[in-house]
Amino acid sequence: MDERLKDLNHIGIAVEDLEEAKHLYCDILGFELVEEKDLPDRGLRVAFLSTGNTTIELLKGVTPESAIAKFVDKRGPGIHHLCFEVDDIDAALKGLDEEGIELIDAKARPGAAGHPVAFIHPRSTMKVLIELEEK
Ligand code: CO
Q: N or C: lower Cβ tally within 10 Å for the chain?
């Protein structure tokens, strides 16, 4: 089984003001809004933007308890995570665990785009929060 990370799926950016961020990325920088939706179980509203080959996920915390709201409170808006595709997320998580890599999600869960996802703890990845998404 090939457990390596594959292509970058998207870059997650935490924002304070989703409308302002969409204006910047879409109206000024030229991204296209692909999808926007609420993820109530995670206290989030997300917008996926695309250039065709590159996708950005804008993340806005809509409840004070959401991890994104806490992130923005602590550090301000900015790059939150990088998401890479994997062929088999269970195999990838098992392989990482065996390497001693700390996982936020020991098991995959449904992500914003509906595919199984899991996060690797930034303590184990030189402070870069990495999301894996099975494609
Ligand atoms: Co993401």
A: N
Q: 37 CA to middle of ligand 1, Å?
A: 13
Query: What does the block give as tokens for 103?
Result: 């996982």
Residue 32 has pLDDT above 60, yes or no: yes
Scan for tokens 């806490």, then name that residue.
70
- Separation of CA 67 and ligand 1 centre (Å): 13
Predicted confidence band at 113 (pLDDT cuts at 50, 70, 90)? confident
Q: What is the Å distance from ligand 1's center to 54 Cα?
A: 13
81 CA distance to ligand 1 centroid (A)?
7
Torsion of CA 25, 27, 30, 31, to 10 degrees: 50
| Cβ neighbours of 130 (radius 10 Å) | 19
What spacing in Å lies between the alpha carbon of 1 and ligand 1's midpoint?
24
- Between the CA of 40 and the centroid of ligand 1 the distance, in Å, is 15
| Residue ranges of domains in the chain | 8-134
- 72-108 residue pLDDT tens: 999 999 999 999 999 999 999 999 999 999 999 999 9
Query: Could you say which architecture CATH assigns to the domain 8-134?
Result: Roll (3.10)
